[in-house]
Design goal:
The protein is α/β, with parallel strands linked by helices and 468 residues long. It has 13 helices and 22 strands. Strands 1, 2, 3, 4, 5, 6 and 17 form a seven-stranded mixed sheet that branches. A five-stranded parallel sheet has the order 8-15-9-10-11, covered by helices on one side. β21 (392-398) and β22 form a beta hairpin. α1 packs parallel to α8 and α3 (49-63) runs antiparallel to α5 (83-107). The longest helix has 25 residues, at 83-107. It is globular, with a radius of gyration of 24 Å. Bound molecules: flavin-adenine dinucleotide.
Length: 468
């Protein structure tokens, strides 16, 4: 068997792998990217980020959820919408994004190999069935897969994990979503918008507890008002799924719940089992994680890892940044030597939410004095125009210097709007910047000015301060 030599071998063709490969390709390195499936794209393009966001957008459009908020306007198409309508746009967007990425890789001369990769020795990778690649540097970006708890019969056509839910042939009548993490909460919102009765079950007692408490309460309130049934402090102990009829879930309290379909969103595990890591002297950690340092370097100096395979935050956004940085470090490119110190989080529930930096809870824990400024979408003309009744921009400033420490948004365009605050934080700015900046009118961006005014007035003692 002849071995082909490369400067870099990337294992895994998801967002992290593609960005790592392209970064090396742009700087003229000879790169091989190995993807075990027929298509590159990974969870980012094929089974996670892009399809779930497209389905959410389609659900909002088909169900008329947005237009219902506009007085006297009902553009609802729900009666005519079929599951095929629902899925078509998702498929088109995923194909387009995949082609765009493939074209990029071609333009940077990245050679793609299809087949499962495993290590033969620290510099040699076998691509099944019989190709050998030798690499001076290696980037592992094999991503993650849904965890499948043993109590659920996934062979049943109406018991799904978060990959399979993208392939359903009929809309569920009723859906139990097991696990109220980001993936579970997002899909609960999407299916609820389509008129499916949704029960969201979790052993915890609140939604997305890593968010600022006020924002997480706002999302839960809005989802409850939209019809999602939250089932807190309950775990599923049994799942009975007969060939026809309802699937019955038994919960820890002894209560039962009968639904047509179940979506299990019980977390993810790293895809490392097939890599033969023993051949390079690496031992995967809990849930298959590869341990890396801040530069994404593993315990073997020429082997780097990025994306979901190294664990939280496990987002496409962060995985791509990790990979770009890892490749710069690996080859000494003078372009990016650190992953951004403040990482945004986007949550595509209905309503959408996003955050960057500190929460009120984290600042209290650190004993840092702060002041909060709020601006509500309903007090903003653009918010009125789009009919977003619950949207909120919340800014948290250091009490002494009014530097922005945290930005939190819930409502339409939250994941876009957060970037204004994020960039301000990256440049160490605060209330004074928003005070001096002129924003377009009418825009949601203008909320930054009013949230800052709110905080400035509180800090100066001119209005009541509810910051703790
Ligand atoms: C429903 C859902 C919604 C999400 N929404 C968002 C979001 O809105 N924003 C966001 O930033 N992130 C989101 N994520 C997370 C995001 O999808 C992942 O963080 C991202 O895809 C991880 O990228 P990756 O390149 O590390 O791994 P992956 O995208 O998982 O890609 C890994 C690739 O490696 C391949 N591979 C595995 N083993 C081997 C092997 N042995 N040999 C060769 N190839 C192999 C796999 O086939 C796969 O193509 C979402 C995830 C899910 C499930």
């Amino acid at each position: 068997m002849q071995t082909q030599s490369f400067d870099l071998i990337v294992i895994g063709g998801g967002p992290a792998g593609i960005c790592g490969a392209n970064t090396a390709g742009i700087f003229g390195k000879r790169v091989a990217l190995v993807e075990k499936l027929h298509d590159v794209g990974g969870a980012g393009i094929n089974t996670g980020t892009i399809p779930s966001k497209t389905l959410r957008e389609t659900a909002l459009a088909l169900s008329g959820v947005r237009s219902r908020k506009l007085f006297g306007v009902d553009l609802s198409l729900r009666r005519e919408a079929t599951i095929r309508d629902f899925m078509r746009h998702k498929d088109n967007v995923a194909v387009h994004e995949r082609r765009r990425r493939e074209e990029q890789m071609r333009s940077f001369n990245v050679e793609t190999f299809h087949g499962a990769a495993s290590f033969v020795d620290p510099n040699t990778v076998r691509v099944a069935p019989d190709t050998l690649l030798c690499g001076e540097r290696i980037l592992i970006a094999t991503g993650s897969s849904p965890v499948r708890p043993a109590e659920f019969p996934f062979e049943h056509p109406r018991v799904h994990d978060s990959d399979e839910i993208l392939e359903i042939g009929a809309l569920p009548k009723t859906l139990a979503v097991v696990g109220a993490g980001v993936v579970g909460a997002e899909y609960a919102g999407t299916f609820n918008a389509l008129g499916v009765e949704v029960h969201l079950i979790d052993g915890r007692d609140s939604l997305l507890s890593f968010l600022d408490g006020e924002i997480s309460e706002n999302i839960e309130r809005a989802m409850t008002a939209a019809g999602v049934h939250f089932v807190w402090k309950e775990k599923v102990t049994r799942c009975e799924a007969p060939p026809t009829g309802d699937v019955t879930l038994t919960l820890t309290s002894g209560a039962t719940l009968a639904v047509s379909d179940v979506l299990v969103a019980a977390g993810r595990q790293s895809n490392t089992a097939d890599l033969n890591l023993a051949a390079v002297g690496l031992t995967p950690g809990k849930r298959g994680l590869i341990k890396v340092d801040a530069l994404c370097r593993s315990e073997v100096p020429h082997i780097f890892a990025a994306g979901d395979v190294v664990g939280p935050p496990a987002l496409a956004a962060t995985g791509m940044e990790q990979a770009r940085m890892a490749i710069c470090v690996a080859f000494g490119f003078d372009y990016k030597d650190v992953v951004a110190p403040i990482l945004p989080t986007g949550i595509y529930t209905i309503p959408e939410a996003s955050m960057a930096g500190e929460t009120e809870e984290s600042l209290r824990e650190k004993n840092i004095a702060y002041v909060v400024g709020r601006a509500r979408y309903m007090d903003n003309p653009r918010g009125q125009i789009i009919g977003d009744e619950t949207g909120l921009l919340k800014l948290i400033f250091g009490r002494d210097d009014m530097r922005l420490l945290g930005v939190h948004v819930v409502g339409e365009q939250a994941t876009e709007l957060v970037h204004i605050g994020l960039v301000a934080m990256m440049s160490n700015s605060g209330a004074d910047l928003f005070n001096r900046t002129c924003f377009n009118y009418p825009t949601l961006g203008d909320l930054y000015k009013y949230a800052s005014y709110d905080a400035i007035l509180k800090q100066k003692g001119l209005i009541a301060d509810d910051s703790k």
